[in-house]
Write a structure and sequence with these properties.
The protein is of the alpha/beta class. It folds into two domains: 86 residues, no CATH class; 132 residues, 3-Layer(aba) Sandwich (Rossmann fold). It contains nine helices and seven strands, in the order ααααβββαβαβαβαβα. A hairpin with a 2-residue loop joins β2 and β3. InterPro entries: Cell_Envelope_Assoc (IPR051599), DUF218 (IPR003848), Rossmann-like_a/b/a_fold (IPR014729).
Length: 248
């Protein structure tokens, strides 16, 4: 029963509600002009599919499976890419917090640090006027997690992945570093690797922050609209477009 209720909710609340409304308009148009109603029906179906976990997970999974966890960790610096941050929000030892994906990347970097002892370089600036400076926030949180300040490098100017790679290369060169272990979300890794290679770096990819389980199964909820699914669809399409732009 609980799964049935969840399925009903998905069509009563946005974004599923918009699919229901568009289908209603399609039926109303069908009585007046069939060609426009067919066009609207096609658009509605595409919109519906983009909202389902089935499609969102398919697109995200195709990105996340491109790089495996390395069996042997070799490098001289752990490079972590930011993924957004808030400003002024309360934290344990200050203000400002990393978004979920960036926080997951940070945790992976700390665990790698404890395993390897390599310094951590966090790359990410203040993207918008009302967002937090990612590298500055990350440095405070890294120190709160026990990483010494002497083992933390910050690149706090970059506004996108292309700048992450370019500014990170400059900082690494100034510190005599040349073999980065790149930590970022698994869905973001293909685009990030292209940008780093375009800048003459050959990092060891260490993907994290997975969103799609390897053991995927079909059930009713995978066919019902959800905000998370449409976010995954949009994120995956953005990554593919960014990858193509960086490649060509």
């Amino acid at each position: 029963m609980i799964y049935f209720i969840k399925s009903v909710y998905s069509f009563v609340l946005p974004p599923g509600l918009f699919v229901v409304l568009l289908l209603g308009v399609t039926i109303w148009l069908w009585r007046q002009s069939r060609r426009p109603s067919l066009v609207l029906f096609g658009i509605t179906i595409l919109l519906y599919l983009s909202m389902t976990p089935l499609i969102g997970d398919l697109l995200m999974g195709s990105l996340e499976r491109q790089y495996d966890k390395p069996e042997l960790i070799q490098g001289d610096v752990i490079v972590v890419l930011g993924g957004g941050a808030t400003s002024g929000t309360p934290d344990i030892d200050g203000e400002g917090n990393l978004y979920g994906s960036a926080a997951n990347r940070l945790l992976t970097a700390v665990r790698l640090y404890r395993e390897t002892g390599l310094p951590i370089l966090f790359s990410g600036g203040q993207v918008f006027a009302d967002s937090g400076n990612e590298a500055n926030i990350a440095k405070r949180q890294l120190m709160g997690l026990g990483v010494p300040e002497t083992d933390i490098l910050t690149e706090n100017r970059s506004l996108n992945t292309e700048q992450n790679a370019a500014y990170t290369k400059l900082l690494m060169k100034s510190k005599g570093l040349s073999h980065p272990i790149l930590v970022t979300s698994a869905f973001h890794m293909p685009r990030a690797m292209i940008h780093f290679k375009n800048n003459g770096l050959l990092p060891l990819a260490y993907p994290t922050d997975y969103t799609v389980s390897l053991d995927r199964r079909l059930y009713l909820a995978r066919f019902t609209p959800s905000p998370g699914a449409i976010n995954n669809t949009g994120t995956a399409l953005k990554e593919y477009l960014g990858y193509l732009a960086a490649r060509f």
